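Project standup — Tuesday

K.O.: blocked on the structure for the chain from last sprint. Re-posting the sequence here as requested.
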Amino acid sequence: MTTVRILCDNSIGRLDFLGEHGFAALIEREQGRFLFDTGQGLTLPHNVKAAGIDLRDLRAVVLSHGHYDHTGGLPWVLQHTGPVKVVAHPALFDPHMTRRSDVAGGSGRFIGCPATRAALERAGARFEFHPETCELAPGVWFVAGYARNPAQTPADPQLVLPGDDGPQPDPIAEDASLLLETAAGPVLILGCAHGGVLNILDHLASRLGVSRLHAVLGGTHLMFFPPEKIQAVIQRLEACGVAQVGVSHCTGRDAAMRLALHFGPRFSHAAAGSVFAAPSGSVAMPA
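H.V.: unblocked you, prediction finished:
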């Protein structure tokens, strides 16, 4: 059995969990357990304890990108795991900024990983950087380095990188997802899909030959898409034959409502405390 437990999200799915603006999910398979993202670090300690989870035998921590709401809990995780492999794209520590400021008249604020690479390595992180899609373990794929069609990429003008001539648009180049092989079909888990859900689906088809999916879970970043583009995502998910759409974090209220209306019983909120399961086994994947 492949089980995906949502440990951090903006909303909660059980009364003894806490919510925060962030995302984290625990993947449990025969090959081991993987933690995908760590939230801000505000609620992960509480929710892990509430769920009775022991993190000491994690096979790896996988990070979808470098924003604080996906990496902030890593120092706490390392306190409990000891030395552990941390998988990410090489651009994880890019100096991500937002134009928004917490101070009136401010010029923006840093929203990247709160801890430095050196500090995390001292705490036990054993970084393994992958610029492109690769298999981390049998049936567990790190999906990264995908091409981006601008027409299919969310436009978030608040996200910037510092530049010599002032702030520059931040593509979140390191954005990564996980693809899990199961007997029911592949399961795609998104951190934020900053590069666009449709671009990720295009990459899965071209790189791995995957055009059918059992489930899509996680943050979709559809909040920046107009209705016609959300409809294009819905049509594409239908073409993929998805049996379960579980959205969370950065999907956006309006987009989530549209998905819920369309998918009906196949839709759910992947809120903190939610658990998704798929039969064990694997499907044939191209080399």
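K.O.: great, moving the ticket to review. The longest strand covers residues 2-8. The chain has seven helices and 18 strands.
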